[in-house]
Design brief:
With 296 residues, this protein is of the alpha+beta class. It is built from 2 helices and 16 strands. Helices cover 23% and strands 41% of the residues.
């Protein structure tokens, strides 16, 4: 009987011990889960640009928040890597600025590791911290080259843009069915002209208008731009040509007008004559009054 009571007592102790251990595990798991859920959601977005001089720029933007209230995250480390298939190639670590963005500028002479299709996959990742979750993004990039040429046929101005890319053998081949926006650089913005599409030879042609104002000799800066392409990103190519209407921007003295500081001469002469006539009649009236008084 005593042995049975001792066995029951041991079983009770084991059950209590198991319950305590299970409770502690559940508590730790619940705490870690609640801490993970309390972290704010983060979002990492990436953009790719090819500048006029051939330099490439990869830009990332890190935001965090709950729901639609997303705020920029500053002073956050962003790891930049290239996907090599079975492994990754570390490029650099960027720090976001006050706007939550970080930029990686790659000179034109640098060649990215690419796959057999010439596409480079760049990975950007943020490891998170005590209050923010981790985030990552990837962007597939590919180099494209734009060339702008000008010609005049029968008094018609012809603008030609040719787009090329590297193939697997490293040769430049034309890019067809590529949308290119044509614009003219203004003082604070870009004046859109038209959108062209390249043919099987990678060439897009546009009849340029004749009514675009230029500088004093008619020089204008023309931009050919690819906007947010899946592989090429945003590409800009500029070139200048004297196809504009000459406009002089020199500051000249305005002629005498009613709204200028100097009144027109006819107004000055008219006011002078009116004042002379008024004072003449005033003194004439005084003179006659004094004469009448003396004669009386």
């Amino acid at each position: 009987m005593i042995i049975k009571l001792m066995k029951m007592k041991n079983q009770i102790y084991k059950s209590v011990y198991s319950l305590i251990v299970g409770f502690l595990i559940l508590s730790l798991f619940g705490t870690s889960l609640s801490m993970a859920q309390s972290k704010e959601r983060t979002r990492l977005r990436s953009y790719f640009y090819i500048h006029d001089n051939g330099d490439r720029e990869i830009s990332v933007l890190l935001t965090a928040g709950r729901g639609r209230n997303m705020q920029n995250v500053s002073n956050a480390p962003i790891s930049m890597e290239v996907d090599m298939g079975d492994s990754t190639l570390f490029l650099t670590e960027l720090i976001t600025d006050a706007e939550g963005s970080a930029n990686l500028l790659v000179e034109a002479g640098y060649t990215f590791p690419a796959d057999e299709e010439g596409i480079t996959t760049v990975l950007a990742s943020y490891n998170g911290n005590d209050t923010l979750r981790s985030a990552s993004t990837d962007i597939e990039i590919k180099d494209v080259f734009l060339e702008i040429s000008f010609d005049i046929e029968d008094s018609v101005k012809i603008l030609t843009v040719q787009a090329k890319e590297f193939n697997n053998e490293g040769e430049l081949i034309p890019v067809e069915e590529l949308d290119i926006n044509i614009g003219v650089q203004r003082l604070y913005s870009i004046l859109p002209i038209d959108e062209i599409e390249t043919d099987e030879n990678g060439i897009g042609i546009l009849e340029f208008p004749d009514d675009i104002p230029g500088d004093s000799i008619g020089l204008i800066k023309i931009l050919a731009r690819i906007d947010e392409h899946d592989y090429f990103g945003t590409v800009t190519k500029t070139s200048s040509v004297n196809w504009g209407i000459p406009v002089s921007y020199e500051l000249k003295r305005l002629p005498r007008q009613l709204f200028t500081d100097e009144a027109p001469l006819w107004m000055i002469i008219g006011v002078f004559i009116a004042l002379v006539g008024a004072w003449y009649h005033f003194f004439l009236s005084v003179y006659k009054l004094v004469k009448l008084k003396n004669e009386g």
